[in-house]
Amino acid sequence: MSSVKSVVSTPPAAFFSLAALLLLSITPARARDLLLRNAQLVDPAQRTITATDILIHDGRVAAPGTKAAADVETLDLKGKWVIPGLIDLHVHDAGNPQPDDGYEEMALGDTARRMLYCGVTAYLNLGTSESEEFFSRRDRQRARPLAPSDEADLYGAGEPFGRWSLGSPAMAPGKVAAYVKKWRPDVIKIIYDHAHGRSSLDRPTFVAAVNAARAAGVKTVVHISTWQDARDAIEAGAAAVTHFCDDDLIPDDLPAQWAKSGVRSIPTMAVQSDLAAIVAQPAMLERPLLRAVASAATLDAYRHRRSFANKALGTVQWQREDRANDFAAVRRLAAAGVTLLAGSDVGNLGTFQGYSLHREIKILQEAGLPAWDALAGATTKAADFLGRPHGIRAGEIAELVILDANPTDDVANTEKISGVVHHGQLVDRSKPPVAATTGK
Ligand SMILES: [Zn+2]
User: Fold this and answer.
1) Please, what is the average pLDDT of the chain?
2) How much distance in Å is there from the Cα of 91 to the middle of ligand 1?
3) What are the sequence ranges of the domains in the chain?
4) 241 CA distance to ligand 1 centroid (A)?
5) Lowest CB count within 10 Å: 182, 234, 252, 393, which one?
6) H/E/C letters for each residue in the chain?
7) Is the pLDDT assigned to residue 16 strictly greater than 70?
């Protein structure tokens, strides 16, 4: 599929100005108003469910009392629930790995379309795409926030920083500032990982990198794998820590220290448990939403346990062993008041682009996070982290997912999607995105 990638590589700027002119001349001045009647609006930030009509006028949630245009499109949402657009805060966007060492490769647009089909209206890419392609696509999206789009909104870190790029504390300010100036990343990702005696950034260099990112006005997401790594990241004042230490139970004093710091956690539960979960319960592969966004070849590879390669067999093993530690960490951090945000780490074994965010929310709930907090971590709190509107308040561009069942009863109900509103417009979900691409 590398030929597909070259087809979507960046055309010259002149092409875009011409394309933009053509679009301007054929796009009506304003999108049609949309009236969602009798909705149950679920607001995880307020922990409220409100029976209401939602009017979307010029792509934005209208203030109460606003009159709809005469040609308003009306949907009756009786018996349905509406949540803010979902956000996955830990994505590697190149495709879906398969347990027999195969790979379902996806171009950037393929991934973004699968995400949106699953109600994921935005995601944070923490590495894979080529930076030029990724950030130019992001910038084109951001320049037209009300344009009809079948792709999730992109946020990204680009290249992570680590021992290979930062040799000393003195290097950090210049390197980080130059990187921020070049790409304007949404976050800086730093690999700070000392598990099993791995050679990683030393602490002074790591602290210098966090400070340099702060000075440049960019949040840091720190990949860790020991609890000491997490403690160092908290003390350095990172914005978020991603992953847990799987090997050890979280130290007794860490949750309180973590909560006091205000640093967020993006634990990535799906990547730490879902391959073992699929092996234990193969029926998971038949979920309708998953089948709509993963290729038949990918799902087949998961069904045939006997063709699993050694990497997959090893992953099943460590996921079984580490599950208790991971679940205990969720429970203890939640009890202490740490903000837990949803990120699937999709792009790794056991995960699927778009779909696995739903698993992430569900696993967080299974581990002991209350449903409201699991939902907030994938919607309003995730949006706050990105500096993005929630998409449901008056004046904001509407970003909504319409569900057939109440997600505060069981967060797995986020899979029961009957509609998605993105950039203030209803997304055409008549054709599942998997039909548009071929897996390999
Ligand atoms: Zn990752």
Assistant:
1) 92
2) 6
3) 85-388
4) 12
5) 252
6) CHHHHHHCCCCCHHHHHHHHHHHHHHCCCCCCCEEEEEEEEEECCCCEEEEEEEEEECCEECCCCCCCCCCCEEEECCCCEEEECEEEEEECCCEEECCCCCEEECCHHHHHHHHHHCCEEEEEECCCCCHHHHHHHHHHHHHCCCCCCCCCEEEECCCCECCCCCCCHHHHHHHHHHHHHHHCCCEEEEECCCHHHCCCCCHHHHHHHHHHHHHCCCEEEEECCCHHHHHHHHHHCCCEEECCCCCCCCCCCHHHHHHHHCCEEECCHHHHHHHHHHHHCHHHHHCHHHHHHCCHHHHHHHHCHHHCCHHHHHHHHHHHHHHHHHHHHHHHHHHHCCCECCCCCECCCCCCCCCHHHHHHHHHHHHCCCHHHHHHHHCHHHHHHHCCCCCCCCCCECCEEEECCCCCCCHHHHHCEEEEEECCEECCCCCCHHHHCCCC
7) no
